[in-house]
Amino acid sequence: MFRYIRKRLTNLIVVLFGVTVLSFLLSNISPVDPAEAYARRILKSPAPQKIEEIRLKMGLDLPLYQQYINWIGRCLRGDLGSSLLTKNPVNYDIAQKLPATMQLVAIALFWILISFIPIGIISAVRKNSLFDHLIKGVAILGISIPSFWLGFLFLFIFAVTFPVFKVIDYGNIKSLILPSLVLAIPTASSFVRLFRATVLSNLNKDYVVYAKARGISSNRIVWGHVLKNSLPPIVTLFFQHLGYMLAGSAVVESVFSLKGIGLHLLNAVTARDLPTINGCVLVIAIIFVLCSILADVINMVLNPRITDKEEGLYE
Amino acid sequence: MTELLKVSKLCIGLKPQTFPIVKNVSFALREGTSLAVVGESGSGKTITCKSIMQLLNPKTFQVSGSIRYRKTELLTMDEKGIRALCGSKIAMIVQNPMTAFDPTVKIGAQIVETLMAHQRISKRDAYASGILALQKMNLPRCEQLMDSYPYTLSGGMLQRIIIALSLIHEPDIIIADEATTSLDVKNQNMVLDELEKMKRNGIALLLVTHDFGVAAKLADNVIVMREGKIIERGTVYDIFESPREAYTKELLKASILKRGNCID
Ligand SMILES: Nc1ncnc2c1ncn2[C@@H]1O[C@H](COP(=O)(O)OP(=O)(O)OP(=O)(O)O)[C@@H](O)[C@H]1O
Ligand SMILES: [Mg+2]
Predict the structure, then answer these.
(1) Option in B100, B104, B144 nearest A206 (CB)
(2) Confidence of residue B51 (pLDDT cuts 50, 70, 90)
(3) Which end of chain B is more exposed for a tag (fewer CB within 10 A), N or C?
(4) Ligand 1 centre and the CA of B208: distance in Å?
(5) Distance, in angstroms, between B1 CA and closest chain A CA?
(6) Do B17 and B81 reside in the same domain of the chain?
(7) Which of B127, B146, B170 is the last residue of a domain?
(8) Whole domain around residue B233: which residue ranges?
(9) Are residues B161 and B102 in the same domain?
(10) pLDDT of A152-194, one tens digit each?
(11) What is the CATH number of the domain that holds A260?
């Protein structure tokens, strides 16, 4: 297992290299000139030589690879540069905004976790029952409804019509309940569908029939064996979605006016705040890769066959 | 000799239109005897066996008729009752040992689970009797076996573990559905020897096979199935010496061609 983790950490470096190069390239391909954008932001109508001055100061006149190397060098020393928008170090901004989003995502993941496992299993076990059909309908709705619309709907219902929550109430856990639900519902819905299918296919496996033939109770078979065998594909997806949620929390954060990393990144993109964009992409990429490693480790524990495929029992 | 299992007028249909798969099948299994069910692929042998243990999904299959174990009706028994019988009084040996166990759980835990489903026994005691049961099957390094995952073991080893498990609660009846089909010749003979030993110990065997060699070696009586119906039945001598149906003769011929030296 440790050999595997070391391999994955090497992978991490390769992925991070790719992601940073890509984000660097993409932001340089787009037609807007960051020096000009920055100049316009600090001065009303900047003179051309003023823009050139800024370009020189930001190192934007250097060849692209030189800019990249400079940036990576600074990153390795823990310096992601300064935001053009807030003037703060990018590090500082991210450290400010990330915890709120992490909290939001963590609560959303909690909703997902406590919903899709029991619902998926019960739907599969009671295939074609009323419950199953009902869940199918709700899940399709949950997958297809856009987040911002769901967000507004929730605000309208639970904050305006029945004021259980406040529209803007930043700072405590209660204010995260609605947004985390909005963030969780599409993912939970697609998980329920996938998990139900996986459980169904496992229910038809030989080991289920033989377990019954040995007199093991259905409950034990389903909640012990079938559950354990159905989890691995969803674990991988679960951690992938953790990454998506971090990156894609912008919509929910803007609907519920939460000051998180998603909104921060969105603002940076609109303002062409290159250091912030690159910094956020780097941080999100790191989280993505760490999540996928975590997923693999959990899967190895769930299904040891993945680990010692090459090392048999009797060496 | 008491009648342990009596199947009468068993009909199994595929829902929703109850398309018939097994039609009007009746047979009886007496203490210490063995009955072979032979027939071509798709003739309904497995479905018949599964219906005895209520292993068929009631949403897919419509089962009618009667299946009695001693004096109790199995078809209408509730889930709890039938699970209490399965694995203790009626045990099963499966066709494919490689897929019979949960691949994510160690053999030992699955044996312990089986023991604890039927007895009030502590985990530690169950583990100890699990090792004992494996040792009785002449399996090597039983402690190590208990601690290994199913996929690390060979088909022959797994089938021996399954046989050990089938005997663990001293059953009256053992149902062996193609118990030798997926094994190599050496392991086939090992399984056949074990089945023979069971028979000598008074366990009634229900053997599903399309191999007349197996039937000749172990069975007292034979029923021949085709398209869900019993088309011929008799003692093993009747069937081998004077088969009436052309279908039986054909099956017999195909079997002899395949493993010519097995029938002596
Ligand atoms: N789950 C199922 N759904 C629909 N039809 C089924 C199902 N299982 C079995 N059947 C049908 O029932 C019939 C009998 O199948 P069964 O498995 O009992 O045959 P078998 O005699 O055991 O054959 P084999 O020698 O190949 O094992 C077949 O025609 C098969 O197509
Ligand atoms: Mg079969």
Answers:
(1) B100
(2) very high
(3) C
(4) 13
(5) 26
(6) yes
(7) B170
(8) 1-89+172-264
(9) yes
(10) 999 889 888 888 787 766 667 788 889 999 999 999 999 999 9
(11) 1.10.3720.10
The boundaries of the domain holding residue A284 are 97-314
B58 and B74 housed in the same domain: yes
Please count the structural domains in chain A: 1
B244 and B184 within one domain:
yes
Domain end residue (candidates: B155, B170, B185): B170
B70-126: pLDDT as tens digits: 989 999 999 999 999 999 999 999 989 999 999 999 999 999 999 999 999 999 999
Total domains, chain B: 2
User: What pLDDT shows up at residue A311?
Assistant: 39
Tokens of B171: 């059953």
Distance from the B221 Cα atom to the nearest Cα atom in chain A, whole angstroms: 24
Q: Which atom of ligand 1 is nearest to the CA of B47?
A: 18
